[in-house]
Amino acid sequence: MTNTSSGVPAIEIAGLDKSFGAVKALDGLDLTVPTGEVAGFLGPNGAGKSTTIRVLLGLLRSDAGTARMFGRDVWRDAVELHKHITYVPGDVSLWPNLTGGECIDYLTRLRGAADKKALRVRKAELLERFELDPRKKARTYSKGNRQKVALVAAFLSDAELYILDEPTAGLDPLMESVFTDYVREAKADGRSVLLSSHILSEVEKVCDTVTIIRNGTAVEHGTLDELRHLTRSNVTAVVGKDPAALAGLRAVNDLQVKAHDGGTRVTFDADNAGIADVLDAVTALGVHSITVTPPSLEELFMRHYGDVIEADEAAADDVAGDGAPSGRAARKAARQAAKKAGVR
Ligand SMILES: Nc1ncnc2c1ncn2[C@@H]1O[C@H](COP(=O)(O)OP(=O)(O)OP(=O)(O)O)[C@@H](O)[C@H]1O
Ligand SMILES: [Mg+2]
Are 251 and 273 in contact (CB under 8 A)? Predict the structure, then answer.
């Protein structure tokens, strides 16, 4: 597209509103993805990510605000824009009676391509990397394999902008890492990517910036370094020596120590920025076993927006009177306990 080299953003959304009846799915959303950038798009269920993406794809008309890709209006110029974008949803549907390979060819219009040989070579490479057998009928594919078909087609296309809405839903971790390799390659080729995902580690691996959306509004935007201070991993280890030294490390939070068969069990949250020092210290204690769990998106949200969510829930409780469900009360109590314990 002619505008890509002129500094016009790949995506530029300002003050976007979209309601479904009484539900305000988007409420003044702002989101900019500069050309050549991989942008993570995070948010809890129902935050408005897919609605934003459907507006970008020209599938939904917004109520107010502007949404542009490469400087063009997503609704008015949808036909032209679709020549330059590729889209992978989280729940790929295929033509049941076509083989995976035929679906890929159809999605990429492979037969009409100028350099058929180069495309064939790349297609073979993608099929091998994603371990996808293209000869099977699409109706026989598992969910993960349907995702792979759409991903192979996307990475075969020469789209300038990849719009990916939870594209790795159902992929095993090995395949997720193949996916992140190809996203990196797309970036190296100068393409732009909008990646909606619930997998924070995936976003951390490939995204230059992250936008967090809640209730249809962007509540946080920044580079990963700017947001990294929010992330902590949970570490559980059984060690042979006295773990007192861990308490002195700045990156260790909420340390709990318990006697365990033949050793001591330690559990704590570690700042990701200081994880190398923490692991060195744990290793020095003689590790019998260790589990490191990265923070889920939900945990990130709870740490960052716990107060806001608690206020929402308190308001809901007021409306509901005494009959608030015990699950909600339990979650609130757990968050309050976590806050007391120093978890952000
Ligand atoms: N076609 C529709 N009709 C009515 N309400 C809708 C429709 N599509 C979305 N919504 C509502 O809009 C809000 C935003 O939904 P959206 O699918 O954009 O969320 P999301 O961020 O993609 O969530 P998830 O992480 O679960 O995919 C939700 O409250 C949802 O129920
Ligand atoms: Mg969605």
Answer: yes
User: What are the tens digits of pLDDT across the range 283-327?
Assistant: 999 999 999 887 655 566 666 555 555 555 565 555 544 444 444
- Starting from the CA of residue 22, give the closest ligand: 1
130 Cα to the center of ligand 2, angstroms: 24
The per-residue pLDDT for range 242-292, each reduced to its tens digit, is: 999 999 999 999 999 999 988 999 999 998 878 889 999 999 999 999 998
- What are the domain boundaries of the chain? 2-228, 237-292, 297-340
Residues constituting the chain: 344
Task: Give this prediction's pTM.
Answer: 0.74
Looking at residue 324, what is its pLDDT?
41
In this structure, are residues 335 and 310 in contact, taking their beta carbons and an 8 Å threshold?
A: yes
* CA atoms of 151 and 136, how far apart (whole Å): 17
Burial class of residue 21, CB neighbours in 10 A (0-12, 13-18, 19+): exposed
Which of 18, 23, 57, 215 gets mutated to test ligand 1 (max ligand atoms within 8 A of its CB)? Answer: 23
Between the CA of 17 and the centroid of ligand 1 the distance, in Å, is 13
Class of domain 2-228: alpha beta
